[in-house]
Amino acid sequence: MRIDLHAHSTASDGVDTPAQLVRAAAAAGLDVVAITDHDTVAGWDAAAAEADRAGVVLVRGVEVSCHADGISVHLLSYLNDPADQALLAELTRSRDDRVARARRMTERISADYPVTWDQVQQQVPPGATVGRPHIADAMVAAGVVRSRDEVFGTVLHRESPYYVSHYSPDAVTAVRLVRGAGGVPVMAHPMASRRGRIVSDQVIAGLADAGLAGLEVDHPDHAPHERAHLRGLAAELGLLATGSSDYHGDGRPNVLGCCTTAPEDYRAVVEQGRVGLAGRGVS
Ligand code: AMP
Ligand code: FE
Ligand code: FE
Ligand code: ZN
Q1: I need a surface site. Which of 46, 70, 176, 182 has the fewest CB within 10 A?
Q2: Nearest CA to ligand 1 atom 6
């Protein structure tokens, strides 16, 4: 079984539509793929409809923006109730502030580069969660840079003077919200240091106490020694270990299935999700 538990669509900053994502997963020989757009469940229905046709098992997920110790943390939520009001309220708050934040970043950047808020908005599919990749796309379209990756190393980097943060819940709150919605919380790319500062093992232990289910150990942004460290930490804290591509279509070099999750960890995610939803009367 080939299982990839983290991928994006045009519901956030991926390049494939939800249906295209599912077809790409089938073409890549995956048996299971999770759709995990940033702060939204908007892609779930279209992906689910196509999954049956394509013969791929779809795991419904969200990549929840949050923070700990002033550091950005991404929390994958699997199989949560998509109608849970407490979780939805936080996702909506993050999504709304992402728009204001992208506008402010674009204004700062436009002082030095020829890119306008109008041009950025043209890069955002209707209803999609706005992110820095859409600013990157506008700069690529304007001929300022060649790729998303190029501009993430400079203008869009977290340490750049153009960077603006956006609202997000703290990570302990997010873990509790996901569990409260019957979902299974797994910390995404805990050691992706190329993107900015990463949290300490103590912070991860605190999240485990709050109900974290797992760590994304195998991820393209993790070096071999970081994967080894995370695998040990997961074992020590009694957490599942997952693996995934963090596919964004052509928007990043990550290929579907480049990192995968072992069947027993996948089954544990599904089982915890089943129990979680049953616990709140959702089947
Ligand atoms: P944001 O959520 O708006 O702060 O933007 C962060 C997103 O940018 C991440 O979720 C990635 O999808 C994307 N990203 C980060 N680094 C890169 C990169 N080097 N190239 C392309 N996309 C990136
Ligand atoms: Fe992304
Ligand atoms: Fe992420
Ligand atoms: Zn992601």
Answers
A1: 70
A2: 132
